[in-house]
Amino acid sequence: MKSLLLLPLTVVLIACKTSATANNQQPSEQESFLVEAIQNTPYSAVVKHIRVDVLPSDQPDFTEQHIYYAQVLETFRGEELSTINYSMFVEEGEDTIIDQNPVIVTLCKDDEGFYWPGTGAQFEGTTALISLAKKHSVRKTESNQTHFSHCN
């Protein structure tokens, strides 16, 4: 009887181990997007958002400009700064809720400062994603890159 009970448990444990091994070999979609975002934007870092200001927009297709302010916890690409702010142009009434947990952001930059490149530019600040970002930081990519496809 005891061996009959152990058989399903053994099968479950083997399946879990196989699943974990497969996950380690294949990066998740989020991991792939993070690597692509780091490689295609001039700035990436782990930040903790402090506040957001909502202003009227001077852009014809958008009604508001959100200015996000954040403390930089670790820089992966770009100039090392202690704080940053970046702008995002949105439709009127879009949420300005800021996550109090650390997040990874990938940003573009122009003469006016940092700006949000769009969907797929913010990632959870998990240990696994931070480790992946470190692995693919500017120190591991072409440092004299001038074209950033996420910033067009």
UniProtKB/TrEMBL annotation:
<keyword id="KW-0732">Signal</keyword>
<protein>
    <recommendedName>
        <fullName>Lipoprotein</fullName>
    </recommendedName>
</protein>
<feature type="signal peptide">
    <location>
        <begin position="1"/>
        <end position="22"/>
    </location>
</feature>
